[in-house]
Every structure is written in structure tokens, then in C-alpha cells.
């Protein structure tokens, strides 16, 4: 399958934010640091990091749930009238980054809300999970991760060479409208510019009141969901619900879909592919950023799928990339559409 659309490079977006949490101190003695195996040098750093990421993503889900329960989303428009940020978007990255850095201080974290969360973080301290009451962090959700057999290139990964691409709340537009099933927390782990693992957490999953966490490690495995093959012979495409434009609609039209499923969130749509709801995710526009795609790309690769730009090229997740936006065409195929 091929699609031709003109690329316009003049839309390049050069903003670059690195998370800064000087003002926010998560109290010591969090349960996270009570898991000595996450510090153990007997287990490869990569596996400890993936395991820790699943734990902290799961725990962060309670922040989104608390915000909904409080009814106080504290919405700020980041620009253009269609890019909202809520208090959950601000609190989750502070928590996730601080928690990961307790065990992995040399990580580079690049997150969507980089600038805004360095403001007055005391405003959301009440949302941070208390150390004693979060049972998710008292036990491993995926104890099997620490025992996975991994190739030497993953075994040799050093902390300082890892880049975490963090979208604390993907699908915020839907979140602000009560479309909670579209919301995920995305934590992508990149090394050498490629996604080596991805964690997707659904805080409002219908599977569990405590949310659902899914991980994928390309070439190694995945967990937390069951990959389902999509229907063959029917091209079902999923795309944006709240950020469409004529270019996206034109691209979808060219693909002659049997059905189009419009939904919020890059993470949510990636799960549609993994669980056999749709055959492809098409987004022929600017708007997606690398924190939207790193974790979904890792999971898709882990189940045999693929994510590319229009010309079939892979995206780079190096920390030195000069822009974070994904341009113009994102085609995500599962194995039936390769
Ligand atoms: P959607 O499929 O519309 O939920 O978009 C997936 C991700 O890309 C979300 O994190 C959106 O915030 C982001 N995104 C897509 N299009 C835009 C846009 N036009 N402006 C801002 N963010 C966008
Ligand atoms: Mg997003
Ligand atoms: Mg977001």
C-alpha cells in the first residue's frame, strides 16, 4: 500500500523541552525504593528499568483517577484552542520522573509538559500517591520482566544512554470531555535512537478499577494484553477524533477503508491495533509528537507491527533530535497490512 502526500518542511517545530523538577520533591521512602531488586546489579539495567516503568506508570494512574473524582481538572489551553492541559498532565510527569530518577538518576527524560511542570508543584502535591496506601507498588505487576532473556545489545544498555519519552496523559482532549477510555500514560524507552521498550497505562480501563498496564519489548515480548489478529479482507482504519483536517481525511480516502474508527489518543489507537480492533492507524498531519509515538511504536513492534513515516522511514528517538513533531503521515500497520 502506498500513499503520496506533499511534505511541507516549513512547518517544522523546533521547541525542545527537558523536564526540570528542581522544585518538586517526592518524599523519600516511597514503596518504589523498597524494591531492592530494582537496584540489584544482578539483573540487567534494561530489565530493571522496564519493570520500574510498569510499576510507576500503574501507580501514576491513581493521579488521573483522583483528578476525575475531585472534578477539578484545572484546564489550561496550550495554544490554538485545541491543545488542553489539565492538572493531571502536570502532576503525573512530576511523579513519574521523580520516581524513576530515584533508582535511575542518569536518565534523560523528555516529556510533553516539560516547561509547565517546573512551576509551583505544591499545587498538586495532594494528588501524588501516598507511600503506604498504594498496593500496586508493594508488589510487581509483571514479575516475569526481571527474568526475561534479552539480547546482548539490550543487556549492555547504560543508564546515561537511555532516553525516556513521556506523555503523562495522552488523549487530554477526550479526558476534558469525559472520554476517559481514550486516556493513557505513555512511557517510551529509547536507546541509540530506537524504541527498545514501551509502557502504556490505561487509568480508566474497563478491565480493572486500578487501570491496566501493557508493556512491549521489540524482539523480546509483551505483556498485559492479548494480541488479537484483526479481520482479514476488511481494511479498518483508526484515526483521530478531535484533531482531524482535510489532509487526514484525504489520506484515509485514498486507502479506501471498509470502516473508519475515530478515537482519541495515540496510545489508545495503538491498542486498537494490538487487540485486533483496527488494521491501521493513519494520521496524515502534523500534531503527533515523539512522546506520543515512542511507547506505542515499541509495543507495536513487539507484537509484529510497524510504524513509519510516508516514505517508510523509521522515526528517531535520539535525545539530540532537533524537533519532536512527527510530520505528515503516520502509518501504523499490523502484520496483516505489511
Ligand atoms: P489524537 O489522535 O487527536 O488524540 O492525537 C494524538 C496525540 O497527538 C495527542 O497527544 C494529541 O494531543 C496530539 N495531537 C494531534 N494533533 C494535534 C494538534 N493539531 N494539536 C495538538 N496536539 C495534537
Ligand atoms: Mg499525546
Ligand atoms: Mg499528553
TrEMBL record:
It comes from the Eukaryota. The keyword Cell membrane does not apply. Keywords: Lithium, Magnesium, Metal-binding. InterPro entries: CysQ/Inositol_MonoPase, Inositol_monoP_metal-BS, Inositol_monophosphatase-like, Inositol_monophosphatase_CS. Signal peptide: none annotated. Its EC number is 3.1.3.57, 3.1.3.7. It catalyses: 1D-myo-inositol 1,4-bisphosphate + H2O = 1D-myo-inositol 4-phosphate + phosphate; 1D-myo-inositol 1,3,4-trisphosphate + H2O = 1D-myo-inositol 3,4-bisphosphate + phosphate. Belongs to the inositol monophosphatase superfamily. This is 3'(2'),5'-bisphosphate nucleotidase 1. The lineage of its organism: Eukaryota, Metazoa, Ecdysozoa, Arthropoda, Hexapoda.
